[in-house]
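Pasting two entries for a bug report.
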Amino acid sequence: MALQIFRTKKIVSHSDSNDGLKRCLSAWDLVFLGVGAIIGTGIFVLTGIAAATQAGPAIVLSFVIAGLACAFAALSYAELSSAVGGCGSAYGYSYAAFGELIAFIIGWDLLLEYGISVAAVANGWSGYFQNALTALGIPLPDALTKAPVLGGIINLPAAAIILLLMGLLVMGVKHSAKANNTMVVVKLITISIFIGIAVFNVHPDNWHPFMPYGWFQTLPDGKTAGVFAGASLVFFAYVGFDAVSTAAEEAKNPQRDLPFGIVTSLVFCTVIYIIVSGLLTGVVHYSELNVSSPVAHALTLLGYDWGAALISTGVIAGLTTVMLVLYYGLTRIIFAMSRDGLLAPFFSKVNRNTQTPVRVIVLCGVIIALIAGFVPLGELAELVNIGTLAAFVLVCLGVIVLRITKPNLDRPFRTPFSPLFPVLGMLSCGALMGFLPSITWLRFIIWLIIGLIVYFSYSIHHSKLVKE
């Protein structure tokens, strides 16, 4: 038994590992996937809230620190995506480095991370969509925009957008990528308009005091504040670049393009976050930014009502791309686990016409739509944070382990200054896990226990490695 749970999967070449999926994504498609996943609520919501409650104008430094922590993980993802490949992301890398049990645990963890993320973002998208309908004078009744426990019947917009994305993904990954690219352009245009307006309305006095809470301090109410506390909050604005690695088997040249897509999207989004957060705290005093849509609020205060309306359009487009990319990543991880025998073979069937795993896409779409429509997520969304950080830690460790166990493995991209950068990634992501509340840890442990039951009752007996 002990030997079985630590058996590792043989690393196969990228060209031998697509099992019928269509290789059609270019390097820039992958970059747009990363930007689509990263730029969402983080830039339109989190920047203002973190500035108002955590770091003040020094939120710029929080984004730099969080960006560095993500960069260490991203470089590790880049190395393993080019060397190990597969559409399973951190699950597949763990299978090659640590063995089957650890791989299953991280795969199971990723199912929760991606699934809850999509449902949570759908709830946020529904709110902005309802605001847009209200502005047009055709609001939906509360019964159709709230979950039953909140007094409604169903959150219809949240469920509907999931089903719409389901249809898009069923059509094929190239159609999905084109839709994603279009929506990314829309939100980048809205961000550019904000920057163009804000740069001429900066009042340097708003940047004083620059660090009202210092680097880190505990407030009288027991909450933490400061640059480092702000970094732990805004870190989750970057989450999503790992979804790029799930496109390994649909990329035209994965060994070259995956590292490019992962690193380029993260660097680009980090620069955008720093510029927007700096300008936002320059045009409006940070104490006024603790609102649900701080960027739009800032433009309203400046008298640009049309700009605020445009930002709302950008938010809707931004949240749609986040859902699309994470939903895509979820289906590919389930597909990879099923192909390895750790989940039922039902999930690894590829439709001949669309060259997509239609069964997984439809099943996930129906389940997530039901969750988004009938469950108010609330604190459950914090499970996304801990799952992501756990995956980042293991990927960084995986680089170190594979450098030792498989020194001759072909690595088209190599993490610089290894093992220093992977170790820094493990330490920074591990430290950020410590900021999460105990209830999040408890829920995470319960989910993992359920996963262990599935593994020892089914997966260990049906693994492809048993047959080999």
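Entry 2 (this is the one that rendered wrong in the viewer):
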Amino acid sequence: MVASTMETPRATGVGIDIENVSLAYGKTVVLRDVSLVIAPGEFFALLGPSGSGKSTLLRLLAGFNRANAGRVRIGGVDVVELPAWKRDVGMVFQNYALWPHLTVAENVAFGLEERRWPRERIRQRVRDMLELVSLAGFDDRRPGQLSGGQQQRVAIARTLAIEPRALLLDEPLSNLDAKLRASTGLELKRLQRRLGITTVFVTHDQQEAMTIADRLAVLDQGVIQQVGTPRQLYDAPVNRFVAEFVGSINLYAGKIEDGAAGACTVSVEGLGRARVRPDRATAVTAGAGGMVAVAFRPHAVRLAGTTPVEGLAFDAEIGTTEFLGEFVRYELAVGALRVVADLPHARFVEALLPGARARFVVSAGEIVVLADPPR
């Protein structure tokens, strides 16, 4: 096999430092004292609901928005006063922003021609970029002849062609169907790993962010609620917003029976009481009698066996069921409470029938205690 001579963009690996950034449009505050450090070569996600400020923050990095206060450094360079075209970052927009009247090759070459590269070097770079994104041979097609995933790859190739120091992606997978979104996301991550380019992408899809990102920041109302790896945010949310936004969760008002900061015993009326490990209740400052939020994921709910489990234990009536392939989702009635349980599906195991009663347990290690109780 002949070795490839393809010239890929240089690996940038620049760090991004956002320090005490605030932004408002008139009296409408969009970003509130945001500070964030993104490591060189990191694949970082900004996650949050519509209106949380995530796209505004991305556009601020690109130079399309201007902060009222704070500093932004890319590769150690303060870019606050620099216009977008001088920041040397590449941005892929949600609608890809391809020129419909130009061919794929002409779209990829556009930024290079603007920079007055030599013609032969442009041709070589276009070939290299299309090979990089697995679109070799698509040179003469127009965007309207491509699928959504192919259009996205053309937009990425066009952006990477100019060798940006960082890659910014605004909802890069939102225009794709569910199956294509998953496969394209993994392709994007493999490409990013190959190039080593610092990448920041915006999404409102928590599953997408957790699948692709090295770390992510969850925003709400212009404030960063938590920063961490996908596993950290899923297993150890710091407040109710993060717990409810990142994945499915059961969340109830609970009471501290004893203890304060750190290890404590909590009780939830109808579900029982449990001694919670210090690392699962680190945000709790209430003493005995204080109200807290008690949370656990649906997959943490299990049918009670013969071996006692330290944690919550309760009897429940089976309500609605939802077959989801790898597991069956049950809605359980415990008095006035509703508990969602995801039980593994096995081919020769009968599903629980609506109306039946069974005993369930939740291990204490799966319980998270949060300082802000449900109202």
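Dev reply: Rendering is fixed now. As a check, the viewer should reflect this: Residues 178-195 form the longest helix (18 residues).
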